[in-house]
Amino acid sequence: MNILVTNDDGIYSRGISLLVEAAREFGDVYVVAPSSQQSAVSQGLTIHEPLQIERLEHLYEGLTSYSISGKPADCIKVALEYLHFPIDLVFSGVNDGPNLGTDILYSGTVAAASEASIFNIPSVAFSTDFGCFSIVEEELVSTIDYILRLQMPTPGRIVNVNFPLNKYSKSKGFRLTTQGMRIFSAKYRHDEGKYWQEGNWVDVQNEKNTDVTAVTEGYISITPLGTDRTDHELLRAWKEDHHDL
User: 220 with 173: CB under 8 angstroms?
Assistant: First the structure.
């Protein structure tokens, strides 16, 4: 199995190094990742400026690695449409920070997995709490093994994985979840003529079966995602109410 590993924190980040080493146990690994921090860029593409594509010979022993001066989605397109790597599965992460609930709308980590799904390639996005890699170090390989044994990654879909919050030293196991709600409340700091966006997440009550609740309770959350954002339930209701349309 040929596995492409990417992320949004940059090719030199701790999370991607852990994911690369874990992925080695499951197949042949290729690495294509941003040259710099690209968090919260969602599924943007670089189309108004040139891309720099640099082969890194000694970053990971025995692996083909490329650094891209672009976004996570760019990395997927470069790997598949320029470098023509024969990829069977995409791993994105491990992100330094959760990608829960509505975080996925902004996440470059999930966006890379989403871009792969557009190419009909199964993909998995991995995230952990800020600065919390201890559980990842101990349980990443077993998490990947669980996901693959249950054949969770399927063409055109994304498996979104979040490790527990940093108050836990180990997980309580796996929980299959739905996407919850997590709202970022922005504040703006003015400094020398520039405005910096800061803020924090609003405390939102989530259902028991959501990803937000799972990691809060110490579980590894596994959520299936798709790229179709059609509200099918509302569409059916419209059709029932307006038969003439």
Answer: yes
Residue 128 CA from chain centroid, whole number: 10
Task: Report the C-alpha gap between 177 and 195 in whole angstroms.
Answer: 37
DSSP symbol at 97: S
Q: Which of 132, 135, 157 is nearest to 147 (CA)?
A: 157
Q: What pLDDT score was predicted for residue 74?
A: 97
CB atoms closer than 10 angstroms to residue 61? 5
In a domain, 189, yes or no: no
> Could you read off the pLDDT of 133-148 as tens digits, one per residue?
999 999 999 999 999 9
**CATH number for the domain that contains residue 80:** 3.40.1210.10
Q: 190 lies in a domain?
A: no
Q: What is the three-class DSSP state of 92?
A: strand
Token output for 146: 């669980």
| Separation between Cα atoms, residue 3 and residue 186, nearest integer Å | 37
- Is residue 188, in this structure, part of any structural domain at all? no
- Can you name the residues that pair with 184 across neighbouring β-strands? 201
Cα–Cα dist 238/245, whole Å: 9
pTM of the model: 0.93
Please name every residue paired with 125 in a beta bridge, in sequence order, or none if there are none.
92, 160
**Total number of domains in the chain:** 1
| Rounded Cα gap, residues 201 and 224, in angstroms | 23
Give pLDDT, residue 40: 84
Whether residue 195 is contained in a domain is answered as: no
- The range of the structural domain enclosing residue 158 comes to 2-181+207-241
Q: What tokens does 81 get?
A: 């449409």
| pLDDT tens, position by position, 58-109 | 899 999 899 999 999 999 999 999 999 999 999 999 999 999 999 999 999 9
